[in-house]
Write a structure and sequence with these properties.
It is a single chain. This protein is mostly helical. Helix content is about 50%, strand content about 0%. The two termini are about 15 Å apart.
Amino acid sequence: MRRQQFVSDMLAWINSRLAPPGVRVDAQTRLFASRIINSIKILDLIAWTERATGRAVPDSQIRLDNFCSVERIAEVFVREATDAAA
């Protein structure tokens, strides 16, 4: 999956399912600092990331800094074709 598509799809999902009414999340929104994501919602976010990437998120990668924004999630977990060849 391409990062840009991942970001777009994740933002659509977060904005429709997790963001409170009237709040619009963008790729740089600090998900925990803005209280969009909490200790319960992170489980949904991890599960969505795993489905979207087709890979399990290793326990060692479940850290606040890896899920701080949609942009960061894509950076850490989306491997594009050019990344895989390197």
